[in-house]
Amino acid sequence: MDNATRSERSRKAALEAAIRIIARDGPGRLTLDAIARESGLSKGGVMHQFRTKEAVLKALLERQMEHFEEFSTRYLAKVSATSANPNLATQLATVREAATSPNSAALALVAAMVENPDLMSLPRDREMKRVEAIKAEAADPELALLRWAAARGLLLSSLLGMSPLGKDEHQRLFARLLDDDQWRPLEKPAKVRAVKAGTTSAAKAGTARKRA
Amino acid sequence: MDNATRSERSRKAALEAAIRIIARDGPGRLTLDAIARESGLSKGGVMHQFRTKEAVLKALLERQMEHFEEFSTRYLAKVSATSANPNLATQLATVREAATSPNSAALALVAAMVENPDLMSLPRDREMKRVEAIKAEAADPELALLRWAAARGLLLSSLLGMSPLGKDEHQRLFARLLDDDQWRPLEKPAKVRAVKAGTTSAAKAGTARKRA
DNA sequence: TTTTACAAACCAACCGGTCGGTTTTATAAG
DNA sequence: CTTATAAAACCGACCGGTTGGTTTGTAAAA
């Protein structure tokens, strides 16, 4: 087998084993020996691919970030034409994806934070840019930020195993978060720029539509 | 010195040392030896007060929960007369308190989760009751839950060191979360079927709002 | 041949927890 | 108020096992 692909295979096996361990036994049980055992590699093999445990965590983190970055980019391209606030919509959808992901993905975050809190600067910096984009496009930046925060609250709660919500409730809340019509900005700025009228526009709530 | 108070003192010293360690070095660095070193006690002394490390985490967890429970009760008593949704208001205020606490309190959660994820059932169960109370009193339960989720998102993000928000922004967002006037309930969401194309809903402004 | 990928034995430091012993407090008889 | 005794708080050396990481060896790829 080709050398490069062999390495690639081993790295992938190790990282996936790591995720499995974290999800099954908790971040505290993630050790190099456990990774070796779970991946089928020897410890030496693992150490050949990652010089240190921190390197494993870093790779794990980057892998996950890349994965969701990709999801984000694709989603953004899809909705940027139809949504008034595509960046917010994208982040909400991405967080939902992370929360419902079959593999318990974002646990890499917790594991990294346990081992070395400084590692969190990577995802934090990346998140900062996204938050900027969300604020920039929003008619009501605070409201947008709060929707973003709510999504993160749902994700992190269930990630830490402390969400008191049922799975169905979880889903419904995400759906509502994503529904722009439910989040009309308050008339705080005197001059509210009408939301970019796209194909989505539809009926403005409250005034145009009265419910029964 | 009295025996009981001596024990009390030692337990307190150990637990506070533990919190200091977690906040400074991360949850992964919390060891029994470290607690002994940081608290000034000997390892034997620590082990005399807590038979196992898990007992330390449990005590830490219960201590923090009790502290915020107390804050909650006091706050609830204060606002239950004037607020339309005192339970939600109380939870929001409590979470804000936890987020701005000088000691990085709620880190006990992360530490417990690392050592033994099962420990999370304690705070989860308690949270479940609170969520029930919030839903019961709310005109729009989903909206209330989302405000609650947003608060938790802000708290957990900064707790894990991955909040991209400035401290002032943080405060402003909490203030807005707490301001009932900014969150007008929708009426019974009889037929809400919203995904991405804005086809939905009826936003109705406060007919039934009771405000002071 | 040289380099790369991996295996397996190995190591020092550290981990949670035990144990025998010392000091401090509590109880109570004289 | 002593004094004897037991009980609780505390110390620190120690133990088996684990941890992150190294070293040595080997077989395949380059």
TrEMBL record, chains A, B:
Keyword Metal-binding: no
Annotated protein name in UniProt: Helix-turn-helix transcriptional regulator
InterPro entries linked to this entry: Homeodomain-like_sf (IPR009057), HTH-type_TetR-like_transc_reg (IPR050109), HTH_TetR (IPR001647), TetR_CgmR_C (IPR041479)
DNA-binding region: 31-50
The keyword DNA-binding belongs to this UniProt entry's keyword annotation: yes
Compositionally biased intervals (Low complexity): 195-206
Domain HTH tetR-type span(s) in chain numbering: 8-68
Pfam families attached to this UniProt entry: TetR_C_28, TetR_N
Organism: Bradyrhizobium hipponense
Recorded GO MF terms: DNA-binding transcription factor activity; transcription cis-regulatory region binding
PANTHER family named in the record: HTH-TYPE TRANSCRIPTIONAL REGULATOR RUTR, TETR-FAMILY TRANSCRIPTIONAL REGULATOR
Region (Disordered): 189-212
Keywords tagged on the record: DNA-binding
